[in-house]
Specification:
mainly alpha, AhpD-like, 10 helices, about 60% helix, about 0% strand, globular
């Protein structure tokens, strides 16, 4: 249960039902986070559009690495599990994802550029005013140009908006997000506990 009342998928109508149906198409169920937006479905649409624009200039691996690093640093179980799972499915081993979660990315096969951007993303979401020129230099020295440094900052900052909103209103991670080795799920569930209720659907 979230901290605010939400509309159950089967009781939805109009724009809310349309939003739930889009989410169900993407996930095969209506995610807990989506129910929060029943009050303002246009906000979820605007955020999705912003993320689409932000991610367009970067490759999928970069987007997932930066998003995961930011989500885990923010203490968002939902986002950490979702993007950790995507990394495991497409780019890294569970052991490598667990190492990044533990701050041991230097022990993985990640490139120096990837390590630099992960560390930058963490620092940005934890305390953006603590970021220094040295943090940016570490990326530049490893071949990341200024335009892509801007992209990385946008990805991390965009995740901070979404993760903080979802966590502050009490949405718990959906059970499907924990479909991975139990030790990895435990390492990625850094905030709210995984929901044990059956995920809901519009129909």
């Amino acid at each position: 249960m979230a901290f605010i009342d939400t509309i159950h998928p089967r009781d939805s109508s109009g724009d809310v039902r349309a939003m739930y149906e889009r989410q169900q198409t993407a996930w095969d169920y209506v995610p807990n986070y989506a129910k929060l937006f029943c009050h303002r479905p246009e906000v979820l649409a605007a955020w999705a559009n912003m993320i689409s624009v932000i991610r367009r200039p970067v490759d999928h691996r970069t987007f997932e690495l930066v998003t995961f690093a930011a989500a885990h640093a923010l203490g968002s179980s939902s986002c950490s599990l979702a993007h950790g799972k995507k990394l495991c499915e497409r780019f890294l081993s569970p052991a490598e994802v667990a190492a990044i979660a533990a701050g041991r990315e230097s022990d993985t096969a990640l490139t120096p550029a990837e390590i630099a951007m992960i560390r930058f993303a963490r620092k940005l979401v934890r305390n953006s005013s603590a970021v220094t020129q040295a943090d940016v230099d570490a990326m530049q020295e490893n071949g990341i140009d200024d335009a892509h440094i801007f992209d990385i900052a946008c990805i991390a900052a965009g995740r901070a908006f979404f993760a903080n909103l979802v966590e502050a209103l009490g949405a718990r991670p959906d059970p499907a997000l924990a479909e991975m080795p139990a030790d990895l799920a435990s390492a990625l569930a850094v905030g709210r506990e995984i929901d044990q209720q059956v995920s809901e659907r519009v129909t």
